[in-house]
Amino acid sequence: MSRALTVSRAAQLVGVPRAVLQRMIRAGELAQSDGLIDIDALLQAFPDARLEDSGMLEKAVRIREESFGRRVRDFVLPSPELLSQRLFAQSQELAELRRHLQAYHALVAATIECLATRPAPPDLADEARRRLEQGLARVLGSESDNRLEAMTDMLKVVSANVVIRPSGREFLVQGNDSILQAGLKAGLGLNYGCAGGNCGLCKGRLVSGQTRQILHTDYHLSAAERAQGYLLLCAHTAVSDLVIETLEAGSPTDIPEQELVARVRALQRLGPNTMLLHLQAPRSSRLRFLAGQGATLALANRGGDLQATWPIASCPCDDRNLHFHVARDPGSALAERLFAGAVTVGDTLGVHGPRGDFVLGVDVPPRAAFLACDTGFGPVKSLIEHAMAAEAVEHFSLYWLATRPDGHYLDNQCQAWTDAFDEFDYHPALDDDAARGASRVAKRALDDGDPAASRYFIAGPHAFVDAAARGLLDAGAPAHSVRALAC
Predict the structure, then answer these.
(1) Nearest-angstrom CA–CA distance, 100 and 108
(2) Beta-bridge partner residues of 454
(3) Relative to the CA of 65, which of 84, 101, 108, 315 has its CA 20 to 30 Å away?
(4) How far from each other are the two terminal CA atoms of the chain, in whole angstroms?
(5) What is the CB neighbour count within 10 angstroms for residue 414?
(6) What backbone torsions phi and psi does residue 175 show, to the nearest 5 degrees?
(7) Residue 40 CB contacts under 8 Å (≥ 6 apart), including other chains
(8) Is the alpha carbon torsion for 309, 191, 278, 75 positive or negative?
(9) What residues contact 341, with CB distance under 8 A and at least 6 apart?
(10) Per CATH, the architecture of 155-252 is what?
(11) How far apart are CA 362 and CA 35, in angstroms?
């Protein structure tokens, strides 16, 4: 019996990004019906797909441990209660499939017997009997061809697939994540506020599937909403595969400005002139933002507020922990206070945002090239982590220019990405002149891929951004494919 898979599940099984399968579907290389991929079609496209050979599980662990950090992307099994529910649901599904197969087998066997014992035109009877016998033999001897079905059954126990309507985007719920947490980790711009069951902004309607509440909520749904299947995504996890109707942010204009007070969690010197500022938002008030956006930080003091607007260097999937890569800048009073040690762990800063439209977008072509200079790597890092999580890009490249000795302050992170992702490549460069170096990296980015099938993201000082953008456009890159952020 043929079975169909969602794109996320199919990509998980054969060990490729979702973007690869989506490109194959658009090109007519992989058949899709009603948003699902038939297992037989997947096997034809990936005839050598085997769990032990694909490296899918090892790759998932490596990505989570080396690229996102154990704190954010640890892979854990679901709770025993959730595992029990999923195993029970799967046993019911398998029992139903077994009943259907037995019924079909009995029907085919009876038809063969009938054709053999009752008068009928010889040619027609022989041909019908031969076809039925061949079909029955294929069903009985198809264990080797059903390996993806067995892999699917196994993976359904440890993860559940969620399809969001009306966008059609999908993701997997793994471990003990809530539906909201899993969606954010997968790069979706789901609507939410507190993520703690208080505001109700993450409300969604369950179209199909089974969920389980894992978080107490103070927000109360009306009787009418409950009757229609509404639930809070932050408070429920998936027991089975789900279809949910809910809102998503497709652009920066879909996210309202927010104000909150965050506490300094850590201050870490990444180099003599670069510092990591790690802020932690309250559990009841998170900053919702898109990768590549920034925020205005304010430090209260006797003379008023010291303010600075910096790009956020962390992934939106971990919205409570906000990272900023701060360069030593005599023109920024707040930066000078950080480097002077006037701000310490435990202090609070006001956060106002998000700001900016330097975002990945929803229509990303097969290749994304990121051009960064010095701390311009901060917003680029956020974009890259989002691209990795969303699996929206087939191939992405980083060209990082350093104009000072500590310019490649997270070189090890980039090397880890290179090791963990076959589709990622990293090209560090050195030049004490930002504009001259920009021309070099822009030429390299153009030489490495087709400009018509690429999108370019440029971040860094004004001289770097202007020169890189000019180099790309003068060489024929379409204007709509170049996005820039001077920071």
Answers:
(1) 12
(2) 367
(3) 84
(4) 57
(5) 20
(6) 60, -140
(7) 2
(8) negative
(9) none
(10) Roll (3.10)
(11) 18
Helix 434-447 vs helix 462-474: angle between axes, to the nearest 10 degrees?
A: 40
Residue type, position 215, single letter: L
Q: What is the pLDDT of residues 232-291, one digit of tens each?
A: 999 999 988 899 999 888 789 989 899 999 999 999 999 999 999 999 998 878 899 999
Location of structure tokens 């196994």: 154
> Which CATH architecture best describes the domain 367-486?
3-Layer(aba) Sandwich (3.40)
Give CA–CA dist 318/36, Å, rounded: 30
Q: Where are the chain's structural domains? A: 4-68, 81-142, 155-252, 256-355, 367-486
Encoded amino acid at 458, one letter: I
Q: Domain 256-355, what fold?
A: Elongation Factor Tu (Ef-tu); domain 3 (2.40.30)
CA–CA gap between residue 73 and residue 89 (Å, rounded) = 27
Q: What is the pLDDT of residues 107-166, one digit of tens each?
A: 667 776 766 666 656 665 666 666 666 666 655 554 444 555 656 666 666 788 999 998
| Separation between Cα atoms, residue 291 and residue 252, nearest integer Å | 10
Decide: residue 447, CB within 10 A, 0-12 exposed, 13-18 middle, 19+ buried: exposed
pTM value is 0.76
Say which amino acid occupies 352: H
Query: Tokens in use for 353?
Result: 């945002």
